Amino acid sequence: MKQKIYVETTIPSFFYETRPEPDMVARREWTNVWWKEYREKYILVTSMAVVDELSKGNFPNKNQCLDFIKDIPILPITTEITDIVQFYIQHKAMPKDVLGDALHLALASFYKCDFLLTWNCKNLANANKFTQIRRLNGVLGIFVPILTTPLELIGD
């Protein structure tokens, strides 16, 4: 059975990244490799939070980023999800933006996504935060997804 991946906003953003700095180019290349060669191995899901973040942004290739996710199923945001978001924020696991990182994590956790795929290494794919996230999800009795980047999912 295929594993499920929650595709967070930074994935389509980096697929179409145009900045010339070496770290930006590397992330774009790794994202492109993963998307073109490995994504078919997984079930992909996303959310209206991702659509909203991409829609509100002012950046080159905005329309391509929105097209990138148009065929990915959207997970519904329920009252249970918003309660989880508040819990993460209250316990300082995520920034106070209820439509940001806490929402992505809540969705991936509640819907038992095996992975939350992101380039946000400050708040999501951050090994220093994982123990706290695992503990909080344990208190809530919900699944703990692996928080990872495309680079870590390249290969067999």
Describe this structure in words.
The protein is of the alpha/beta class and 156 residues long. Helix content is 48%, strand content 12%. The chain has a single domain, classed as 3-Layer(aba) Sandwich (Rossmann fold), CATH 3.40.50. It has a five-stranded parallel β-sheet with strand order 3-2-1-4-5.
In short:
This protein has 156 residues and is of the alpha/beta class. It has helices at residues 10-15, 22-37, 48-56, 62-69, 79-90, 101-110, 127-140, and strands at residues 3-7, 42-47, 74-75, 115-117, 146-148.
Fraction of residues in H or I helices: 40-55%
- Structural class, from helix and strand content? alpha/beta
Q: How would the global form be characterised?
A: globular
Tally of strands: 5
Mean pLDDT, to the nearest integer, reads 91
Taking strands numbered 1, 2, ... along the chain, how are they ordered across the largest sheet? 3-2-1-4-5
Tell me the domain tally: 1
The CATH architecture can be named as 3-Layer(aba) Sandwich
Query: Do you know the CATH topology?
Result: Rossmann fold
**Assigned CATH superfamily:** 5'-nuclease
**Distance between the amino and carboxyl termini:** 15 Å
Radius of gyration over C-alpha positions, nearest whole angstrom: 15 Å
Name of the CATH class: Alpha Beta
Strand content: 5-15%
